[in-house]
Amino acid sequence: MPSFDPYSVRLAPGVTLVEASAGTGKTTALTALVARLAVDPDAGVLDDDAGWPDLRRALVVTFTRAATAELVTRIRRTLRQAVAAFQEGAAEAPAAIQPLLDRWGQTPDDRARSRARLAAALASGEASVFTIDGFCKRVLERSAFESGEPFAFSVADSDAELQQRALAETWQARVRQHPLLAAVAVAGGVPWTLARLADGLADATRHAGTRLVPPPEALSSAVDRYSAAVAGLARVWDEAEAVALLDD
Q1: Rg, C-alpha atoms of the chain
Q2: Above 80 in pLDDT, residue 227?
Q3: For 173-188, what is the HEC assignment?
Q4: Measured on CA atoms in the order 207, 211, 213, 219, is the torsion positive or negative?
Q5: Residues 105, 111: contact at Cβ < 8 Å?
Q6: What's the rounded Cα separation, in Å, for the pair 61 and 123?
Q7: DSSP-H helix ranges across 13-128
Q8: How confident is the model at residue 79 (pLDDT cuts 50, 70, 90)?
Q9: By CB neighbour count within 10 A (0-12 exposed, 13-18 middle, 19+ buried), where does 105 fall?
Q10: Dihedral of alpha carbons 128, 71, 75, 11, sign
Q11: Are 130 and 60 in contact (CB under 8 A)?
Q12: Model-level pTM greater than 0.85?
């Protein structure tokens, strides 16, 4: 498998997707891609109407808030280092900048042209760097009428509270429909409790591709059979005889 080279990989028009495991250098790759888009005249996707790179046209989406903060810092630092490296007579370029010099700074004219493009990109403003949820939130807020969302809302860091609320509502809806089932569940000692429902959700979502197999009998049918059994017991139940039996 050849190593990923952000300076030579073919760029799809408008969208570039980087898929990699944790700790494999996604932030470095994304930083290099933005620098390449600024300096590579053949990329063209960041050029404004005047033909200069405009970082405000770039959107970088990654996973974590820490990664977005680091990306903003590293993109600006890389562009500054590149401008200095393409300056004639600049000191030896950092290792991360050297591929830019090798590809787009082979002659004095190339270096001057590349430096101008990098300086224009640096002066144009910050690229938009978001987490996935942050980008979705921004789109929904800006398109509130189309999306049916409020103009301002918050995105939960964890869905545990939402899951717990959904579980409670599901459980309450069931027990409201079947008072007898509610009495049995509340009494304890049975598997169908709210805590057991939460454990079942955790088991079902822990592994990708898990399929939930429906029970062979509908809940309403099982409750009807249980109700009939309770009614049958009630017809023959004699508390005095039961006490006498226990005494013996």
Answers
A1: 32
A2: yes
A3: HHHHHCHHHHHHHHHC
A4: positive
A5: yes
A6: 21
A7: 26-39, 65-86, 98-104, 108-124
A8: very high
A9: buried
A10: negative
A11: yes
A12: no
